[in-house]
Amino acid sequence: MSTLLKKNFKIGLIQLSSGSDKQKNLAHAREKVLEAAKAGANVIVLPECFNSPYGCQYFPDYAESIEPSPPSKEDSPSWHMLSSAAAETNTYIVGASIPELEPKTKKYFNTAFVFNPEGELLATHRKTHLFDIDIPGKIKFIESDVLSAGNKVTIVDLPEYGKIGLAICYDVRFPELAMIAARKGAFLLVYPGAFNTTTGPMHWSLQARARAMDNQVYVAMCSPARDTEATYHAYGHTMVVNPNADVLAELEEKEDIAYADIDGSKIDETRKGIPLYTQRRFDVYPDVSAGKVRYEE
Length: 297
Ligand SMILES: NC(=O)CC(=O)C(=O)O
Description:
Elements lengths: L8 E7 L6 H17 L4 E3 L13 H4 L14 H13 L2 E11 L4 E9 L5 E6 L5 E4 L3 E4 L10 E6 L3 E5 L8 H9 L2 E7 L6 H17 L2 E5 L16 E3 L5 E4 L5 E7 L1 H10 L2 H4 L15 E2 L1
Parallel strand pairs: 1-2, 2-3, 8-15, 9-10, 10-11
Antiparallel strand pairs: 1-14, 3-4, 4-5, 6-7, 8-9, 11-12, 12-13
The structure holds ligand LQR7VSFR.
């Protein structure tokens, strides 16, 4: 058995097609979770903003409050759908993400959840790096016009399997989060994310493979399906990459589910062949996981 992963399992990533009707989005997401579980997935991932279209103009209307925990069904129907689907299917669900309204501060966040097979919430992650970019003539998107940023590295212990690192979309461009999670023992980094048709072809696969290669861990990136009628055109290409940076599964742009086997021996084999973990020179440069890190396990 692997040093990091207690038991091999199948991951299912749902490249969900969502529209403007939240109730329909939730019902549809639930159906797809049942489908993935029926196909044998033990850990199921949903994409960034699965209960709404992706765009700053939508966040306030679709936002839910998740405090106190558990929230009421009225305050957070998405939370309750994820919890009951996890319990019904006996799976772990990375239910990511939804716009969250923090009642106390009236701030909005882009928040992902992890539920266990009993339907209990194990962790939340608020997108830590907001998607503020301006590529002239191509795309301008300023998430910070509406959203506030989370402020921690999120590492979640799935008791049956081991630790995963969880972050959202633009977070993947900041290798520090991945390095910290991997050095704290994560075997898999999960990124629900909605790249677009400009940045997706440039960097989606490169980011996934780079985070996997640098850290010798599995990486799972889960996108919404592309909707060309929407204001934001998601790239799609949901993918799973192994610790040697090989792409194990990749979708196109339409709705579908990607499956991959997560095998602990592949991590050990990769790290034995190329032993980065014993060769780092922390006498020459600092270890980002050793300093003052705000993280949650
Ligand atoms: N949507 C995002 O948060 C990030 C993205 O599209 C990109 O980094 O490119």
